[in-house]
């Protein structure tokens, strides 16, 4: 008999769980976990509770039930399934997302989706009262980062959606054994999710009661009346917000970054880069560049491990945007998505009469009718305003295990992470930032490259697309404690390590006067290889007012070597000229943003932005509106 058998929730849990499920829960002898499952079983009132361990049998149970309940349907290729989120639930919902913080902290949170904690808890508990009636709840344990490592964060999810549990099984390392080995009282993150009331297609109907409330004091997230994985899968964006807060408290970093390694075959070396890009700005495509190796595509933890700046990918899979994944631009993912026998969940794409998935920018013809995110779809379908409805959603996704990819870096499971040598911040602007620029040092990289990052909004977030919006560190949607303190933590972390990575800003979206992109999608490979050479001190660079850019001859050599392509000097000059006016405008937008949205932002950072803007204004007299590459000097 375990001492948990006398716990206040023991009778309730015994009545809702099979003896086998109850045995699995109690075997962990984790009182906090037991109380968490008990409390939310009492509150959400599921008919029954299924406890998973790390076995393949439990993974199969979840998979089968997702199909039985219609949350997923099988596609033609073995292992592949399709899931549809409800209309208007196909992107993250910032309006319904709140960081619950103390009353004192609310005024310092600025743009950060904050709500007073007690008020938020009462509201979300009210919404979730009895919300799982008539359903089974699944309890699934997972681990962020490799298990039993300096990076690991244990996580417990309760959900009434088999799709959510299935996604977690593909995206995260199983954590039952990790929990079993945890010391008493060791912290873990907790997530409760309910899709709420469903319509005949299994979609959440009470979207006006959608809530994603994250308790920043107790590290619990409650998410109700939604299904889109960015709103429902606890270990993804919810855990990311919790980890950002925890990292701020403990002096490490959780960043919205991929982790990958650039392969220099000539020199026989592999150099690790991490990169932050707002959603839909080329992050996964960079991490998946042909010829390089991927470690992760979305979330990284950074820790100082024995004096080294080291990173892990928190996840074990990819929940990637499928739009524009095609044989030319993303050949490796495209091939994986075409391979039968791999467990892959597609979401919000068109399924044709052949029961195959079709998405936007796939590069193949799609059928004229089928089923899609808007229900039954046919060529020419319009919404109630007469606007054509495309055959697939712009934020349609695929979910798969990283291990399926042939370009996975064998270091991806290393418990001490990988040493990071370069950090990339990538935005989306058509007329300001050059394709790649190295920052002068860590601090100026954070203040001038990371903090000034902007992006045109995309369909990953519900709302208007194409609007230029500030995106500090590509992380605005996820920063969960005051922005000024978050920036300072970033600066201190890098400055506290002797060999901090170099920082690069990239922009793949420069356009010419007619609106055409100036470079093709794979050119990013050249920019990365240039950064790799810089890190190993093998190429020189031209100074700019804000950093260093490539010399023409180095890029010409890289284009020839990598793509056997001619890279014209004319294009180089157009790409790499320093655009003074847009930069001044960009900095003044940043100043405005931090002034209004980051009440705790230290004066020192404003001084840096303002003095940079003055410097640039003064440079106009010497150089005119543009500074041609190679002509700038600090004197
Ligand atoms: C994501 C996002 O899905 O950032 O990774 O929206
Ligand atoms: Mn992301």
Helices and strands in order:
Elements: H1 10-16, H2 19-27, H3 31-44, E1 48-51, H4 56-68, E2 73-74, E3 80-83, E4 97-101, E5 114-116, H5 117-128, E6 136-144, E7 153-159, H6 162-171, E8 173-174, H7 176-180, E9 188-194, E10 211-215, E11 220-224, H8 229-232, H9 234-250, E12 253-255, E13 257-264, E14 269-276, H10 283-287, E15 293-296, E16 300-305, E17 308-313, E18 317-321, H11 331-337, E19 344-347, E20 350-351, E21 357-358, E22 369-372, E23 375-378, E24 397-401, E25 418-419, E26 422-427, E27 436-439, H12 442-450, E28 454-456, E29 468-470, H13 483-495, E30 502-507, H14 524-535, E31 542-544, E32 547-549, H15 552-563, H16 569-576, E33 578-579, H17 580-597, H18 603-623, E34 626-627
Parallel strand pairs: 1-6, 3-19, 4-5, 4-10, 7-9, 9-11, 14-26, 26-30
Antiparallel strand pairs: 2-3, 6-7, 6-8, 10-11, 12-16, 13-14, 13-15, 16-17, 17-25, 18-24, 19-24, 20-21, 22-23, 27-30, 27-32, 28-29, 31-32, 33-34
Helix pairs in contact: 1-3, 4-6, 12-13, 14-15, 17-18
The structure holds oxalic acid and manganese (II) ion.
Residues 92, 230, 279, 298, 319, 460 line the site of oxalic acid (OXD).
Which descriptors would you attach to this protein?
binds manganese (II) ion, Phosphoenolpyruvate Carboxykinase, domain 3, eight-stranded mixed sheet, alpha+beta, 18 helices, 34 strands, about 625 residues, Phosphoenolpyruvate Carboxykinase, domain 1, globular, binds oxalic acid, Phosphoenolpyruvate Carboxykinase, domain 2, nine-stranded mixed sheet
């Amino acid at each position: 008999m375990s001492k948990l058998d006398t716990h206040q929730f023991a009778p309730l849990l015994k009545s809702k769980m099979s003896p086998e499920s109850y045995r699995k829960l109690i075997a962990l002898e984790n009182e906090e976990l037991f109380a968490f499952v008990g409390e939310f079983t009492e509150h959400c009132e599921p008919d029954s509770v299924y406890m998973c361990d790390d076995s393949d049998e439990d993974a199969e149970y979840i998979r089968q039930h997702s199909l039985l309940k219609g949350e997923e349907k099988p596609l033609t290729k073995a292992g592949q399934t399709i899931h549809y989120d409800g209309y208007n639930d196909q992107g993250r919902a910032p309006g319904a997302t709140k960081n619950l913080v103390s009353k004192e902290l609310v005024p310092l949170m600025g743009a950060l989706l904050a709500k007073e904690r007690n008020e938020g808890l009462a509201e979300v508990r009210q919404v979730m009262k009895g919300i799982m009636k008539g359903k089974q709840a699944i309890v699934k344990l997972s681990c962020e980062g490799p298990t039993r490592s300096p990076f690991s964060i244990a996580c417990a999810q309760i959900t009434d959606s088999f799709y959510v549990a299935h996604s977690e099984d593909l995206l995260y390392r199983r954590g039952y054994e990790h929990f079993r080995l945890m010391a008493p009282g060791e912290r873990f993150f907790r997530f409760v999710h309910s899709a709420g009331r469903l319509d005949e297609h299994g979609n959440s109907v009470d979207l006006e009661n959608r809530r994603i409330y994250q308790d920043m004091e107790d590290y619990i997230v409650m998410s109700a009346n939604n299904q889109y994985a960015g709103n429902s899968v606890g270990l993804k964006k919810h855990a990311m917000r919790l980890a950002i807060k925890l990292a701020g408290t403990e002096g490490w970093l959780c960043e919205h970054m991929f982790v990958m390694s650039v392969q220099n075959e000539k020199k026989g070396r592999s150099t690790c880069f991490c990169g932050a890009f707002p959603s839909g700005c080329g992050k996964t495509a960079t991490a998946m560049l042909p010829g390089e190796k991927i470690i992760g595509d979305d979330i990284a933890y950074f820790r100082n491990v024995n004096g080294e700046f080291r990173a892990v990918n928190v996840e074990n899979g990819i929940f990637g945007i499928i739009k524009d994944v095609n044989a030319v631009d993303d050949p490796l993912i495209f091939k994986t998505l075409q391979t039968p026998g791999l467990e892959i969940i597609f979401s919000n794409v068109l399924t044709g009469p052949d029961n195959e998935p079709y998405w936007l920018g796939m590069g193949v013809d799609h059928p004229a009718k089928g089923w899609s995110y808007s229900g039954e779809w046919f060529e020419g379908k319009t919404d109630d305003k007469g606007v054509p409805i495309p055959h697939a959603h712009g934020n349609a996704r695929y979910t798969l295990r990283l291990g399926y990819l042939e370009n996975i870096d064998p270091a991806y499971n290393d418990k001490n992470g990988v040493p990071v040598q370069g950090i990339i911040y990538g935005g989306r602007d058509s007329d300001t930032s050059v394709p790649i620029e190295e920052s002068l040092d860590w601090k100026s990289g954070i203040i001038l490259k990371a903090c000034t990052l902007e992006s045109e909004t995309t369909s990953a977030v519900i709302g208007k697309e194409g609007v230029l919006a500030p995106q500090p560190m590509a992380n605005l949607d996820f920063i969960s404690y005051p922005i000024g303190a978050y920036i300072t933590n970033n600066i201190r972390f890098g400055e506290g390590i002797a060999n901090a990575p170099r920082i690069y800003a990239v922009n793949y979206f420069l356009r010419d006067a007619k609106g055409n992109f100036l470079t093709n999608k794979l050119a990013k490979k050249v920019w990365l290889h240039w950064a790799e050479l810089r890190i190993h001190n093998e190429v020189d660079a031209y100074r700019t007012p804000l950093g260093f850019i490539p010399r023409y001859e180095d890029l010409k050599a890289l284009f020839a070597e990598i793509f056997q392509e001619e890279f014209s000097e004319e294009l180089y000059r157009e790409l790499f000229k320093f655009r003074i006016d847009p930069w001044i405008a960009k900095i003044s937008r940043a100043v405005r943003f931090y002034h209004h949205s980051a009440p705790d932002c230290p004066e020192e950072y404003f001084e840096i932005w303002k003095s940079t803007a003055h410097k640039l204004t003064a440079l106009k007299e010497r150089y005119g509106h543009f500074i041609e590459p190679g002509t700038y000097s600090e004197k």
